[in-house]
Amino acid sequence: MKISYYPGCTLKTKAKNLESSALACLDALGVEYEELPRWNCCGAVYSLSDDDLIHLIAPVRDLIRVQEQGFDTVLTLCSMCYNTLARANELMKNDEVKRGTINDFMDEEPDYKGEIKVVHFLDFIRDEIGWDKLKANVKNPLNGMKLAPYYGCTLLRPGDVSIDKSNSPVVFEECMEALGAEIVKFPKAIECCGSYQVLGNPEAALKVSNDIITEATAFGAEAMALTCPLCDYNLGHRQEEMLKKYEGTKALPMFYFTQLMAVALGVDPENYNLDLNQAVSQEFLKGKNLLEKVST
Amino acid sequence: MPIKISKETADEQIRQKVKEISGEDFQKCYQCGTCSGSCPMADQITVLPRRVMALLQLGRKEALEEANTHWVCASCHMCVVRCPRGIDIAKVMESLRQLTLRKNEDIINPSEISKEDTAKLPQVAMVSGFRKLTS
Ligand code: SF4
Ligand code: SF4
User: Fold this and answer.
1) Are residues A156 and A276 in the same domain?
2) Residue closest to A216 by CA, chosen among A162, A280, A165, A151
3) Deepest of A245, A249, A296, B118, by most Cβ within 10 A of its Cβ?
4) Could you tell me if B20 and A51 are in contact, meaning their C-beta atoms sit under 8 angstroms apart?
5) For ligand 1, is residue B56 a contact (CB within 6 Å)?
6) What is the ipTM of this complex?
7) Boundary residue ending a domain (A76, A98, A122)
8) Which ligand is located closest to the Cα atom of residue B34?
9) What are residue A237's phi and psi, to 5 degrees?
């Protein structure tokens, strides 16, 4: 099968490690994809005001591009993009009045009725590849890695776009388990890292991120798997600040789940782009002998 | 903290505006407190979400304007998926933000973000932050 791929802004620069590792995994799994031509920023957040339709134009335009490209499904990697595109799509599918207004406003574009399916990499692998096939493709199992998958908010909430059960998801754990990791489940795996409050209230965001990391560590995690560049910033790149501010916090290696999948599937390490991860994460993988194993 | 309520203390306009912008009926809230118990920002906000709903029901405009709740809310939607009355509390928070932002008031100033931070922050942080906290 062939699928349309929507990258979003961050994946072309600061989260290149998410994109390059994910695409290498798709290649390894035999999935054909084509990047969406002329994609634009989705707007990062879905508008929560009932009377604000203008911010829907950007994500809806992306969905129209997918239709023009000739695909019925678009694959996303960034959790924020997933949420914004999926919610815009739900609205276009279900709200006749707003759909009419938006289509009228975009009179230079063909009408859109929400026919495209928006998926995230995780549910795509679950539904289209399956854990058995994923497992069968593992060359370097992540044996012995005590891994805490962290969902964050936007893959799970609100319920109508959740890729699994909002309050008790398993998809992420099952995926990482198929790659051979030892799963560390912890309650805050579905809680918020502080999100955009890194700009408005950076200290509040630091506190909730620190709570997530300390809880995962207390539950026995030695590394964390992520799906979102904003989570990676709050939980990973701000760890230095946490270590300085909070007594008892220990550095926790962070990876995009696709990087760990790429390691497990044995793809060329240049696709991991590990230089964009924290030093502690790079050291951790070296310590597990997972990098050497692949390159030999 | 006891509060006095009367016709004079109830601001009908803020109640109407919030209903209009959010499309949500906060009148349905029966004050169970599930939202407050679910909020990751609970210890950083001055008025818990349950109380915000009560203040809206009573039209307490000043108390709502003084609360930092909607400015610390991260739109995580945890309260939304758990509210037994099916109220989209995140939309209510958004409408309270909009009441200020639509007066052309910014909560953060993009030009004050240091060059160092701009170089580090992912695009998705900046776009979402500007969307939520600037007019
Ligand atoms: S969870 Fe819903 S019903 Fe309960 S206090 Fe909060 S808004 Fe009201
Ligand atoms: S959406 Fe806002 S109010 Fe609701 S739980 Fe999240 S941070 Fe708290």
Assistant:
1) yes
2) A151
3) A249
4) yes
5) no
6) 0.94
7) A122
8) 1
9) -70, -20
Chain B residues whose beta carbon lies within 8 Å of the beta carbon of residue A237? 120
| Residues in chain A within 8 Å Cβ distance of B94 | 48-49
A135 and A117 within one domain: no
Determine if ligand 1 sits within 6 Å of the CB of residue B90. Answer: no
Q: Which domain holds residue A158?
A: 131-287
- Structural domain ending residue among the three candidates A67, A87, A122: A122
pLDDT at A292 over 80: no
Query: Is the pTM higher than 0.80?
Result: yes
Q: Are residues A115 and A143 in the same domain?
A: no
The label of the residue with tokens 């678009």 reads A74
CB A88 within 8 A of CB A74: no
Whether A136 and A239 map to the same domain: the answer is yes
Q: Is A105 in the same domain as A159?
A: no
Q: Are residues A66 and A205 in the same domain?
A: no
CATH number at residue A16: 1.20.1050.140
Question: CB of A71 within 8 A of CB of A3?
Answer: yes
In tens, the pLDDT along A272-283 reads 999 999 999 999
pLDDT of B54 over the 50 cut: yes
Minimum CA–CA partner of A195 in chain B: B74
The predicted structure's pLDDT at residue A135:
97
Q: Nearest Cα to A237, choosing from A256, A222, A219?
A: A256
Using only C-alpha atoms, chain B has a radius of gyration, in whole angstroms, of: 16
Contact B124 A8 (CB under 8 A): yes
Ligand 1 centroid from CA B42, angstroms: 14
Q: Measured between beta carbons, which residues in chain B are less than 8 angstroms from residue A44?
A: 123-124, 127-128, 131
